[in-house]
Amino acid sequence: MCVKVVCVGGGPAGLYLSILLKLQDPSHDVTVLERNPEGCTYGWGVTYWRGLLDRLHEHDPESARAVEEHSVRWRDGVAHVRDLTTRHRGDEGFGIGRHRLLDVLAARARALGVRLEFGHEVTGDDLPGADLVVAADGVRSALRTRYAGHFGTEIRAGRNHYAWLGTPKVFDAFTFAFADTDHGWIWAYGYGYGPEGSTCVVECAPETWTGLGLDRADEAEGLILLEKLFASVLDGHPLTARPTATAPPAPWLTFRTLTNRTWSKDNLVLLGDAAHTTHYSIGAGTTLALEDAISLAGALRAHTGLPAALGAYERERKAALLPVQSAARYSARWYENLPRYLGLPPHEMFALLGQRHSPLLPYVPPRLYYRLDRAAGRLEPLRRAKRWLGPRVARTVQSRALTHRR
Questions:
Q1: For the whole model, what pTM was predicted?
Q2: Are 188 and 239 in contact (CB under 8 A)?
Q3: CA separation for the pair 199, 166 (Å, rounded)
Q4: Which of 333, 237, 239, 232 minimizes the C-alpha distance to 282?
């Protein structure tokens, strides 16, 4: 159907879509335009789970094997609270360096005949000529911004500050570290992505951020302070704010949750972070971007007309995103209300950390929720009651909050 396709953005979503389109029909003229030079990327490692890997093997076994080969895996989760530690066995998780993932996908795309152009920035004023233009250029998408009124773009900023850092320390489990300071709690999420190191995301409330002076510290001062706060889990390894020597330092940010009322305009369609974002604490961003690509490629194959294909893609992905976006909202809220849980014994706190996606948890005293959850694990009627009650409590409280704001 689409003879010529241009993907604006050479991240995982754009590259994987180009691969799938070429596999569906080698005669497609597919180009990926990436604003950064080749080999230049932000961030450290990304996480994903077995379900995504199975889907990658289903749609392109060759790139899936390469992704799996370059990934590390873990099953344990570890939480450090002050000087106490608890460890639990969980589902199998995977980590891969973002640069490695992009290299794998770019090599596969090239081998299939996709044209990759690096250092090619597309602004909102110069829409490429093609049968289909895919805006896969991230949360700050220039193409989406140009037509923000049409797309119905909404952006909500979170409360907490965070910085995306790296360390040569290779964590053997998905690691959480919570440090108590005179200005409040600050915490880190750490996970390995290869023998070269791990991602380490640091987060804190705004009053802690300013109280510790992180709003005023330069790059070196900030890293020294964080290394001291998390010395027990870093084992003498440093933190770094730059994935490469020439990369800009990682800034402190507040997470922006982005949604769009509609995802397409004529022959322009949104993909990945250009269409939606979910809080990083659920580790789903890369998975959702790749699943977007799978869905869009499938819709283009199944429908002869572009409007029908883009409409089917949007409906399918919006429906799939609903539970994920709900989980992300509650996960972010859990961290924004962290002191509510850190007084618990570590094994109870870690159990509720695993339950942070629950819509019921914010409205039940934590110790009571823990006991109910333990009981529900043993009794099917309680499990059913929990699944029934949670969404209803959440909707009631949200409705009341909206009424009070009017």
A1: 0.90
A2: no
A3: 5
A4: 333
